[in-house]
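Query structure, 291 tokens:
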């Protein structure tokens, strides 16, 4: 294991320890929940926002979900809310991979490195970081729309959690339809596997998939992204394969059969990539596929 990987592992472990220690520390200072009775029929109201304690205790600012039990106030404590946030953060990588442009970008970047034959240059950390920032660049309008339609109204208490999920789903579906180029054959594949039947009019445009649930749209979108990424990877490979074939033919004609062709062709492939301004060309073409 190289020194860079060891440093990365140590920093990741230290970050995990700090997060765990912060969660334990905050759990001791959480809001206490009082209840006069555990009888479900004693619950008199269930509301959101901050309420006053009618039992004569000091006024508290209870944010989140408030429950009134026998005219006494209870609230979801800070550790519970933090647990929910950490749960969402643990699912964030899967959400990022499944619902955004990240899949296509990272696969194409790995194809570039493999086609060049540079082994670990650029390293995985650089490719993942570049893919993340390109994903944020492409998905920023979608993220802004989700924030305006779902997150901000939910935080202000204007809509419920179910309504927020419905509002957040619409921009994601729009991205999959328009920018992800969702294909009907992929949707039909998972519809057939699920055994369900949906009335899809292929001439109606993206609106034809509105009745199809997300558990079918998401895997169909991922398959489409994989297909598009492999097509781009094939096109990237073509010029570098030509260089390998030319170098191998020259070495064979000179009788240097024991000399690996990749050793000689690597500088020429890097030179071709530099002269063609490869990074600019590939990134521009990759981003334009989403517009």
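Result returned for the query:
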């Amino acid at each position: 294991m190289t020194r860079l990987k060891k440093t990365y592992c140590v920093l990741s472990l230290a970050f995990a320890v700090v997060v765990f220690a912060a969660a334990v520390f905050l759990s001791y200072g959480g809001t206490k929940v009082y209840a006069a009775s555990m009888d479900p029929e004693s619950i008199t109201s269930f509301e959101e926002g901050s309420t006053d304690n009618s039992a004569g205790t000091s006024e508290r600012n209870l944010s989140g979900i408030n429950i009134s039990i026998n005219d006494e106030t209870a609230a979801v404590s800070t550790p519970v809310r933090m647990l929910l946030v950490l749960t969402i953060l643990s699912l964030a990588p899967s959400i990022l991979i499944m619902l955004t442009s990240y899949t296509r970008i990272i696969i194409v970047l790995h194809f570039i490195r493999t086609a060049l034959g540079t082994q670990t240059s650029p390293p995985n950390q650089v490719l993942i970081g570049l893919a993340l920032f390109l994903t944020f660049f492409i998905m920023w309008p979608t993220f802004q729309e989700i924030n305006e339609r779902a997150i901000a109204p939910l935080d202000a208490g204007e809509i419920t959690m179910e309504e927020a999920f419905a509002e957040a789903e619409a921009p994601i579906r729009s991205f999959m339809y328009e920018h992800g180029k969702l294909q009907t054959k992929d949707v039909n594949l998972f519809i057939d596997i699920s055994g369900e039947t949906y009335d899809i009019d292929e001439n109606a445009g993206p609106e034809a998939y509105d009745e199809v649930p997300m558990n079918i749209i998401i895997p169909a979108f991922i398959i489409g992204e994989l297909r598009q990424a492999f097509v781009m990877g094939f096109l990237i490979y073509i010029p570098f394969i030509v260089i390998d074939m030319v170098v191998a033919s020259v070495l064979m004609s000179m009788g240097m059969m024991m000399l690996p062709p990749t050793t000689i062709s690597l500088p020429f492939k890097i030179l071709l990539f530099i002269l063609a301004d490869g990074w600019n060309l590939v990134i521009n073409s990759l981003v334009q596929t989403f517009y």
